[in-house]
Each structure stands twice: as structure tokens, then as C-alpha cells.
């Protein structure tokens, strides 16, 4: 049975396109508060769980040993635009480990922010791995490798001590097995393990409520979420949805997207974790769905979802030609969050 439609796109009087998907919101212990679509099917969370991947960096003492700032910790959890302040921060993180850009295994990528890419091209320069949206995560993992006295070479390998620590952390936080059969390679060359949305939402509920965490992990979780919500521009950057939400709401909302239409979030005030996946992989559908969930959770701060995500469709002349709307199924399912 296909997943339900979560988001519609109308043009004129017709629904022109739609996005199917699934969304799960849970407390750290207990049944889902919201369950729409197939929340048991394993999906690759991609970059939506970078905060989980960064937990070993902090709880091991590696972040303290390297003297990392909130900006650097936020970048370790980031899918950034490749703006100059992102690049310089990633470079500084590497320097703290005595390493250069050559140590990064993420590959070179043009900045996601168009003006940053144009500026680079205008200077006759090509992008480096520092411009890769995952360079902060990789710099953090290299700091962990240095702290563990493990080789910086092949730190991206699934068998490297860094990735083994990350894998164990993800399993403990989600309550799901990161099995070899469900392991693939992410866009930045790191392992990614497929997990059900239910388990991913549980992990973020544990971040939100700090339930069932060791003292070291509790401190690490608090520190990373504090860094990200205090320095949201480091997590994504100028004009990005997640950075905008965290800038607006602050500590009550930690949100992070991943490739192929994935979004995860932790809401400490409610003790809730969210995970959603849009079947067609489009960021547009994922961000629109996430915006409606977040608006439902914070009715006092956000009157309508279009305050945090542009739900209008315009043509090249700027004419309003349509809109992005939640499906009836999504609206009915998240209605319980508004009470």
C-alpha cells in the first residue's frame, strides 16, 4: 500500500503535483503520538542525523581536547551552504587536529549558496572539500580520530574506530540494529544505515527529553543542541529552512534535514522527536511537511506554516500562480499537536 499524500501543489484550480510520504512523532518511551504512512520501512536518514554522528565527538572528550567552540560544534552537525564563514570554521577545526584540507574524504563540492559559488568562480577558484556541505562533520570525525589515537587515513571506512563508535551510538539512540545489509555509502563517502522512521523519531525524542542517556551522553546531547540552536547559521546557512526555524524558535526546536526528502527534529519543551520521509526525495515536500508539523507544535509562536516556509508558487515575473498545501490526511493527523 502506498504512503499517503502529505503535500499538494496547486496551480489554478487543479492539484498539479503531490508528495507522498510518512511522518512519525514519538516520545522517548511509548507509542507514537503521530504516525502517518509506513513508519516501519527502513529509510536512509542521510544528513538528518548528523547530531547523532557528532555525539561521540563530545562524549569522548575530543571536542574539549580540541577546544571546540559552539560554532565549530554546530558545524560538526551541519549541512552547510559553503559560505565563507562555513569554510573558515571547517579549516580551523582541521587545524586544531594538526590536519589540512587534504585529510578530508568528503570530496570537493560547489557551495550550495549561489552567491558563494559565483564569488568563488569570479576569483578563478575551484571548490575544495572545505566547501562540501559535510566538511564540518568530517572535521569533527577527524578530531575524534586524533583523540582516539587512531589513524586519520580511511576514517570514512565502516571498519574504522570512528565509524564503529558512530554506529554504536546510532544503534543505542534509535534502538534499531545498524545491520551490514542496511549499510550504504552517503554522498560524502561515510556509511549510512537504513532505519525505520519510528526508530529515528525515538532517537530525537531521547535527545529532546534526555531519557535513558548516560551522564556523558546527556551532557553531549545538551551541548550539541545548544550549539546548533545558538548558532543556527552554522548548521545550514543563509536562506535555509532549518536555520530559519532555529533562529526563530531557539532552544525549543532542533531541526535538521537530509538528502532525499528526510527531516528529523527534537522538541525539548514537549519531549518529542520527529522523523519524516518524502517518497520522491524532494526537499520541497519535506520542508513543507516539516513546516506544518512545527507550526502545529508552536501555535503561540507560529500562526501559519507559511511564516516559516514560503507556500506560494510564483512564476518568473513574480506572479502568484499556485500554492503548496498540506493534504487532508496530514492536517487531520497533526491536529492533535495543536491542543
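^ Assign residues to that structure.
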Amino acid at each position: 500500500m502506498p504512503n499517503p499524500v502529505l503535500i499538494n501543489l496547486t496551480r489554478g484550480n487543479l492539484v498539479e503535483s503531490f508528495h507522498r510520504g510518512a511522518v512519525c512523532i514519538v516520545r522517548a518511551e511509548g507509542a507514537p503520538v503521530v504516525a502517518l504512512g509506513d513508519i516501519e520501512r527502513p529509510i536512509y536518514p542521510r544528513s538528518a542525523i548528523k547530531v547523532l554522528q557528532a555525539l561521540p565527538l563530545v562524549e569522548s572528550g575530543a571536542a574539549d581536547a580540541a577546544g571546540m567552540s559552539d560554532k565549530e560544534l554546530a558545524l560538526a552537525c551541519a549541512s552547510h551552504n559553503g559560505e565563507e564563514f562555513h569554510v573558515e570554521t571547517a579549516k580551523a577545526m582541521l587545524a586544531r587536529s594538526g590536519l589540512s584540507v587534504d585529510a578530508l574524504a568528503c570530496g570537493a563540492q560547489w557551495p550550495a549558496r549561489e552567491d558563494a559559488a559565483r564569488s568563488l568562480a569570479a576569483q578563478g577558484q575551484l571548490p575544495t572539500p572545505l566547501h562540501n556541505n559535510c566538511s564540518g562533520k568530517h572535521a569533527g570525525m577527524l578530531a575524534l580520530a586524533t583523540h582516539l589515537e587512531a589513524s586519520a587515513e580511511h576514517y570514512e571506512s565502516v571498519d574504522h574506530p570512528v565509524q564503529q563508535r558512530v554506529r554504536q551510538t546510532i544503534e543505542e539512540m534509535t534502538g534499531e540494529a545498524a545491520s551490514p545489509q542496511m549499510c550504504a555509502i552517503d554522498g560524502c563517502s561515510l556509511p549510512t544505515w537504513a532505519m525505520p522512521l519510528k526508530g529515528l523519531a525515538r532517537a530525537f525524542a531521547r535527545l529532546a527529553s534526555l531519557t535513558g542517556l548516560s551522564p556523558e551522553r546527556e551532557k553531549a546531547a545538551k551541548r550539541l543542541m545548544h550549539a546548533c540552536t545558538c548558532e543556527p547559521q552554522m548548521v545550514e546557512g543563509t536562506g535555509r529552512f532549518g536555520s530559519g526555524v532555529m533562529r526563530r524558535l531557539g532552544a525549543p526546536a532542533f531541526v535538521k534535514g537530509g538528502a532525499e526528502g528526510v527531516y528529523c527534529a527534537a522538541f525539548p519543551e514537549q519531549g518529542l522527536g520527529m522523523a519524516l520521509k518524502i517518497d520522491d526525495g524532494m526537499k520541497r515536500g519535506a520542508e513543507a511537511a516539516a513546516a506544518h508539523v512545527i507550526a502545529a507544535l508552536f501555535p503561540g509562536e507560529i500562526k501559519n506554516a507559511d511564516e516559516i516556509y514560503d507556500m506560494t508558487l510564483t512564476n518568473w515575473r513574480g506572479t502568484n500562480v499556485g500554492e503548496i498545501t498540506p493534504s487532508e490526511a496530514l492536517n487531520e493527523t497533526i491536529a492533535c499537536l495543536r491542543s
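Residues 262 and 290 are 10 Å apart (CA to CA).
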